[in-house]
Design a protein that fits this description.
By secondary structure, this protein is an alpha+beta fold. 13% of the residues lie in helices and 32% in strands. Strands 6-7-8-9-11-13-14-16 form an 8-stranded parallel beta barrel. The longest helix has 18 residues.
């Protein structure tokens, strides 16, 4: 018998049983560079509010400012769905919307610019303003974004020596680019921050290599900055991507950074090694980004790491699949990176992308606009022709993935504690792992200021099992005291756990010495409520300096006073997990400890002046301009939600249940729709298909083989799909899920492609509302290409592939699920 053991997939988690004590010396607080070395544009709005920065963090009205930014591509999404998309992102804690301006979408024919329909960028920015969100435009001219030619129009690409030749020998800017910037400036007029608009920043090009003054890339970025200013783009922040680097025009532009859990653009199909960004490394560049075309050379230039704040623009909101690499994700793959970046000093979390979209076809439906190997200057990768879902928290169809809630939860922490966190300097103790594949040492860091701060832990590494750390404690030397966490005993940190624990945190004049529970959010109502959640496997404990405590009461907890300290132990996480504390001055506030699931499924909305915590796993968003709370549910017309404080609503869809905890529970109900079947029948010839698969000799084609138009002559599996003739009146939408096996699936309506999917083991989704104008004609065809036993494709371990030996392409079933909407 043969045994094949791969370390990457089969490493058994170690149990570290000896007691671990980790010591951290905080040292002296640092001073910040406040001399205005960065040349901002106008940064004061008509209300006299300001956007500023020092060398370590952004500022709003002179105070530390820690924004969350999420990317969404307006030109890849229906205009009539933009407002909902923005509200869904806002509900997840996104405060700034970033967006590419894809040149090819706006000027496919030279000198003919379009800003209508889905290209109406001005209307999109106005929607951001309407909902009190800020915006950052990523101008290009080369954007990448998995777009055809990187965003260059075909006619402009013909000028290039090769597909990636975007910098002239002297760093000058082409006249066509000047015209592109000028056209965008017309659209942006009056929407800048100085005008009271939301536009606080512009990004100049993308992924330009710069080796310092005199290099082509350096001079090119400087030229683009001058051009942006010349055409009237007057913003607080001019930014560029900090990769591949190593040095940008430091006083003119801010470098932004990123980090992804995988690298599906990598030009091989082997398993990837351990990703170093799951360590608390201070190197801001993810050298996996763009390694298909970018050459990370030995550093020719050197920049002071703390000359600019550590801001991110491309933390992975998800991960796109390429034809040759098809990663799938879980929450920890994304969260692990966020925790380490926070732990080493990131002061803006920016995600690429936060909302999935779809590549539009060209203006006349002549060609697709995704990145592929079939363009004039072939890109190394093939992407789906339509789908740009990116496995983002919000899908290409506007639905949410379960890890949308994990993003929302960490964003609650950033929103409530970012003002404290931003000035806190990071310390990475020397007993951390020094290599990515060290699976035994605990990964942790501290950010602190004036003896207070947060302890960050990440015991997760994608595709690996890390050691289980038992009997762990931390000793933090603040210079005035040695603070042991926990004070008595230890905690266990299992494989897969990531967490943030506060220490010496001021809660309304009472010092929280530490908590072995993670802070999530703060409800600033008449009685302030500090919310926490219990971390998996870690016993929650709160330790207070009791010098300013008059009384503590709890529904379910053990309260122990020992000298100058008061401990809250055995507090049961859940909707009854409240603790009330009154200070000597008579001020009262509360703690709330939820379990992790309740915290993940919590939304925070300011509903008519009350900061409300709403617990539900459904999709919810709130429109402050109309006071409308919208809830969406897939396939469930009846369910419970919980709110604190109570929601005042007269909706007949909402029934208040008997109150048993400080939370108020409600039954949500709406009339049930009985789904109709979506029937299908095969319309392709099995013999032709079998002849084709025989000719492949067991090997899958190395590039996608389907086209923009349906071609019945191609020897693939084709199915006629009998969609409903109209969208039902009593549901918001209908989700259709194609359960197929094969290599690729493409759905055509009237012989033109409308959706596609690369097989990863999951179903292919499709919704009717967006496509309801096509339902009357009933000419839907699904085409599936075969996946053979041999393929130059990297699939995740566990992806179902046994079918390749028997039936390499087949539509197995179609599920139909109503999407209910309730508005309170």
């Amino acid at each position: 018998m043969k045994y094949c053991v791969t370390l990457l997939w089969c490493f058994i988690a170690l149990n570290v049983s000896a007691q671990e004590t980790h010591r951290i010396n905080l040292g002296k607080d640092i001073s910040f560079i406040e001399n205005g070395h960065f040349k901002q544009g106008s940064n004061r709005n008509p209300n006299q509010e300001t956007i500023g920065l020092n060398n370590f963090f952004l500022k709003k009205n002179g105070h530390p400012y820690f924004p969350v930014m999420g990317e969404f591509h307006y030109s890849r999404y229906p205009k009539n769905e933009w407002e909902e998309a923005i509200l869904k992102m806002k509900a997840a804690g996104v405060k700034v919307i970033a967006f590419y301006n894809f040149w090819i979408h706006h000027e496919q024919e030279q000198n003919k610019f379009r800003f209508d329909d889905n290209l109406d960028v001005r209307f999109f920015i106005e929607l951001c303003a309407k909902h009190k969100l800020l915006a950052v435009a990523r101008l290009g001219p080369w954007a990448h974004g998995e777009c055809r030619n990187g965003g260059y129009p075909d006619w402009f690409l013909s000028k290039m020596k090769n597909g990636f030749d975007r910098v002239t020998s002297k760093g000058s800017v082409e006249p066509e680019v000047e015209q592109w910037y000028a056209q965008l400036a017309k659209q942006f007029k009056g929407l800048y921050y100085k005008d009271g608009g939301p536009l606080i920043g512009v990004q100049l090009d993308n992924e330009v290599r710069s080796n310092g003054p005199g290099s082509q890339g350096f001079e090119y970025m400087a030229s683009l900055k001058k051009l942006a200013v010349k055409v009237g783009m007057d913003v607080p922040l001019y930014v560029v991507t900090g990769w591949p680097g190593p040095q940008v025009p430091e006083d003119e532009v801010l470098p932004l950074f990123g980090g992804y859990p995988d690298a599906p653009w990598t030009q091989h199909v082997k398993d990837l090694p351990a990703n170093n960004l799951y360590n608390f490394v201070t190197d801001r560049r993810d050298k996996n980004i763009g390694n298909d075309i970018l050459n990370y050379q030995k550093e020719e230039g050197k920049a002071d790491i703390y000359r600019h704040p550590y801001l991110t623009v491309e933390m992975g909101g998800g991960m796109q699949v390429t034809y040759h690499r098809r990663p799938t994700l879980k929450a920890a793959d994304l969260m692990g990176l966020i925790y380490t970046r926070l732990g080493v000093g990131a002061n803006m979390m920016g995600y690429y992308v936060f909302h999935g979209t779809q590549h539009p076809l060209s203006w006349k439906n002549e060609y697709p606009t995704q990145e592929s190997k079939s363009t004039k200057f072939p890109y190394p990768n093939d992407y789906p022709m339509i789908s740009y879902d990116f496995q983002a928290p919000i899908t290409e169809w506007g639905l949410i993935r379960d890890y949308y809630h994990d993003f929302k939860l960490i964003h609650q922490f950033i929103d409530s504690y970012g003002k404290k966190l931003a000035p806190m300097f990071p310390i990475v103790p020397t007993d951390n792992p020094t290599t990515a594949n060290d699976l035994e040492k605990l990964r942790y860091s501290v950010r602190s200021s004036k003896g207070a701060g947060f302890l960050f832990i990440n015991n997760y590494l994608r595709h690996f099992n890390l050691a289980n750390h038992q009997q762990v404690s931390f000793v933090i030397n603040t210079g005035k005291e040695e603070l042991k966490i926990p004070q008595n005993g230890t905690i266990n940190i299992g494989n897969g756990v990531y967490a943030v624990f506060p220490f010496n945190d001021d809660l309304n004049g009472v010092k929280l010495k530490y908590a072995t529970a993670q802070p999530s959010t703060i409800l600033n109502n008449k009685i302030q409520t500090f919310c926490y959640f219990a971390v998996k496997g870690v016993t929650p404990e709160f330790c207070f300096d009791n010098s300013n405590i008059k009384s503590i009461t709890a529904l379910k907890a053990k309260i122990e006073k020992k000298g100058k300290l008061t401990f809250i132990k055995q507090l049961v996480p859940g909707k009854e997990g409240f603790v009330t504390i009154t200070t000597l001055q008579g001020k009262t506030f509360q703690l709330l400890l939820l379990n992790e699931e309740e915290a993940r499924y919590s939304y925070k909305f300011n509903i008519k002046g009350n900061e409300t915590l709403l617990l539900t796993n459904k999709q919810v968003f709130y429109n402050e301009t109309t006071n409308a709370l919208t809830m969406r549910s897939i396939d469930e017309n009846s369910f419970n939600i919980h709110a604190y404080p109570a929601i005042n609503s007269t909706s007949f869809n909402l029934t208040k249940l008997q109150k048993t905890t400080p939370f108020t529970s409600y039954l949500v109900q709406t009339p049930k729709w009985i789904p109709v079947d979506v029937n299908f029948k095969q319309i392709s010839n099995d013999q032709l298909f079998n002849n084709y698969t025989d000719s492949l000799k067991g090997a899958t084609p190395t590039s996608p083989t389907y086209g923009i138009n349906f071609d019945a002559k191609l020897p693939f599996k084709n199915y006629q799909i009998d969609m409903p003739k109209a969208l039902p009146a009593n549901v918001k939408d209908v989700l259709v899920e194609f359960n197929y096996q094969g290599n690729t699936a493409a759905l055509y309506a009237n012989n033109l492609i409308v959706a596609d999917n690369y097989y990863t083991g999951d179903v292919m989704p499709f919704t009717l509302r967006r496509n309801q104008t096509l339902l009357k004609e009933q000419r839907f065809t699904l085409q599936i290409t075969p996946l053979m036993p041999v393929s130059a494709i990297h699939f995740e371990r566990g992806t179902p592939l046994d079918f390749t030996k028997k039936q390499p392409a087949q539509l197995n079933s179609i599920a139909v699920k109503p999407i209910y909407e309730i508005i309170f």
